[in-house]
Amino acid sequence: MVKTILITGGSRGIGRAAAIMAGQRGWSVGVNYAGNEAAAREAVQAVEKAGGKAIAIRGDVAVEADVIAMFDATEKAFGKLDGLVNNAGIVGPKQPFAEYSLERMKRIFDINVLGAYLCAREAARRMAKSRGGRGGSIVNLSSMASRLGSPGEYVDYAGSKGAIDTMTIGLARELAPDGIRVNAVRPGLIDTEIHASGGQPDRAARLGATTPMGRAGTAEEVAAAIMWLLGDDCNYLTASLLDVAGGR
Ligand code: NAP
Hints:
- Helix content is 46%, strand content 15%.
- The protein is an alpha/beta fold.
- It has a single domain (4-244), classed as NAD(P)-binding Rossmann-like Domain (Rossmann fold), CATH 3.40.50.720.
- The protein has a seven-stranded parallel sheet, with helices on both faces.
- The structure holds NADP nicotinamide-adenine-dinucleotide phosphate.
């Protein structure tokens, strides 16, 4: 079935890879981004080239009005929503915990937690069968950090992903009667630009080499799991936390 989905942070990295795979299935994709318009435009073109439809939508997931507007824009362009990839997320620089500023921690929790909650709420409002929706699937991007805690790097980020795990379980159980499945993917060390944004461009390659599989994962390897969770092949699967981490 052709689906309409919204991918927050769909312009780069894991979100972009998932958008292109959705395009390969002929789906329609709202590609949200924060500020890098050129990357968002490129991602839209890549989805269209793959066979799907897409629009780029600028908006900050931590701003309620932006979140409502990005869902409105997706449904206006492509019709009722079938899925959300709750993917936008950031890391901070590697720092000892005692050095964290209030501003740093607020930014992490605003985007990674509040942003994800706002987006999930908006998806629930639109997809719930009791509210006129047709059900759907929410895939939250957590992280192996929620299990490992990221000591010496970013304990705040790890905690934000712990909140995503908990939200996934609670929402899955609350929204199941409304036809909405909620699952999380927990990537390990994936080769995207997020590590450079935290000041460690070599992080995925360096630490990926120490994992059981001996390498970092690719955005496409995570996107494949996201697509499976979004699709109709796993209709009895909800409240799951799926590790895509090469055995880490
Ligand atoms: P990335 O390459 O840094 O891409 C981040 C994307 O999120 C970009 O499209 C960016 O838009 C967007 N974004 C950032 N802040 C936003 C905001 N406030 N509102 C809306 N969009 C925003 O990241 P990634 O590595 O693909 O990570 C995607 C998700 O996977 C994140 O939740 C991350 O925590 C999780 N994850 C990643 C890894 C990994 O190793 N890469 C591991 C575990 C979990 P712009 O282009 O406009 O900046």
